[in-house]
Specification:
Largest sheet: 6 strands, mixed
Structural class: alpha/beta
Oligomer: single chain
Number of helices: 14
Number of strands: 17
Helix content: 25-40%
Radius of gyration: 20 Å
């Protein structure tokens, strides 16, 4: 199988063919995201046995990989009742067999990994480079290990505890860590040195990769196809904001589909205070993003409980990026403190019956704050994107082992 699509430059509107692994428009001299325009305008999603690939019509995939699972959406009763909401829908990405959720890494980053890895051209023999704060690396490691795809991961040393797996990883998966005390961007910078060797390595691309965004967009497809319409509000925790951009793009495709209404879903992404570059940029009412110094970023990363949300160079200002998504949807940036996210995590587990990760706690805390502040109508159709959950349950039912970096990591830490 191979999904049919062409590419569109978000800044200029130019349409062009994908020649294999494009992360930008080769004829555009200014930075801009590119977007996939799919030939099939109506989504054929009644293929539950395909896992994540039930949404393959709107994913730029060349094949289907084994082991995938789709996000699961359900209508909340307990949390909705607590908040006085009539139409709260939870889209859960993680491990929760009771509702049919079987993501073995307990993170929606699996949606990215299964989409990106299925997008790789058959002729590609080089090693893919992925930098991650933790969850993305765990998901890519599992998918690449299962499907024998060579990958070199870069993760901050202090986030090694996120790299846990039930099964032994295939040798095609390798890891290098940036030094203790470093952050996600340090890992990115280290990975870029390897990407200079284009004969042996290629960059996955992060937010620039259409396959990553369209994999993440399956959360919204899960919600809309379950509810029967596009939600009014969308809550998610963000580090780069790529998930919110993906939600916006999926929203556009659902409107074009014609069966889910024409609602423009209001995006309310949240960060973990005090690491707030996106929130502060939005408060300034401009497109420009103030870049944190390395020292400030590392200090604030050390404070926040959801370290996977610490990205000091997110795709905010770039055409097609988060700023454009927020403006177009009438959305806004929000935040949650460590105390707020921990209370939200406990409340969600108590009411809904499953543990959630700190990032999902940020999103839940933001929902609670906005409902209590009267910014969300109690009758509105709300999508709460729980981007990770069930880790405690998974580790209770399975024994896990932790990945170790290659010995070369010490040589590269200077």
């Amino acid at each position: 199988m191979s999904t049919e699509y062409i590419l569109k430059n978000c800044a200029t509107g130019r349409l062009f063919e994908d020649t294999g692994w494009l992360l930008s428009d080769p004829l555009c001299q200014h930075p801009s995201l590119i977007r996939a325009v799919y030939k099939k305008k109506q989504l054929d999603y009644d293929r539950d046995d395909k896992g994540l690939y039930r949404f393959a019509d709107w994913m730029p995939v060349r094949k289907m990989l084994k082991g995938s699972a789709a996000p699961v959406t359900y209508k909340s009763e307990a949390l909705a009742g607590y908040l006085g909401l009539k139409n709260l829908y939870v889209t859960f990405s993680g491990y929760w067999p009771q509702i049919g959720a079987f993501m073995q890494t307990c993170s929606f980053k699996e949606t990215e990994a299964y989409s990106v890895c299925a997008h790789i051209p058959e002729s590609e023999k080089r090693t893919m480079i992925v930098a991650s704060a933790g969850n993305t690396a765990r998901s890519f490691a599992r998918v690449c290990s299962q499907n024998k795809i060579p990958i070199l991961l870069f993760v901050p040393y202090d986030n090694l505890d996120t790299l846990w797996f039930e099964d032994e990883l295939d040798p095609c998966v390798k890891l290098i860590c940036s030094p203790p005390g470093s952050d996600y961007y340090d890992a990115i910078e280290m990975s870029m040195r390897f990407c200079e060797d284009k004969e042996h390595y290629y960059a996955e691309g992060g937010a620039k990769n259409i396959a990553r965004r369209d994999g993440m967009g399956t959360t919204v497809l899960s919600a809309a196809t379950f509810i029967g319409r596009i939600p009014d509000y969308y809550f998610q925790a963000v580090g780069s904001g790529t998930g919110a951009i993906a939600a916006w793009e999926a929203n556009k495709r659902l409107i074009e589909d014609g069966r889910f209404g024409n609602t423009v879903m209001r995006l309310i992404p949240s960060q973990n205070a005090p690491f707030l570059p996106l929130y502060e940029a939005w408060q300034s009412k401009g497109r420009e993003l103030k870049i944190m110094s390395a020292e400030e970023a590392r200090e604030k990363t050390g404070i926040i409980h959801s370290k996977v949300l610490a990205n000091r160079r997110p795709p905010y200002s770039i055409p097609g990026g988060l700023y454009d998504a927020l403006v177009d949807t009438g959305g806004f940036m929000d935040f949650a403190t460590n105390d707020e996210l921990e209370r939200a995590k406990s409340l969600f587990e108590e009411l809904e019956g499953i543990d959630i990760d700190p990032a999902a706690g940020v999103a839940t805390a933001s929902l609670i704050k906005n409902v209590k502040a009267g910014k969300v109508h109690p009758d509105a159709v709300i999508m709460l994107n729980i981007t990770g959950g069930g880790e405690k349950l998974f580790k209770k039912e399975h024994s896990v082992k932790y990945m170790k970096p290659m010995e070369e990591a010490t040589l590269l830490s200077a």
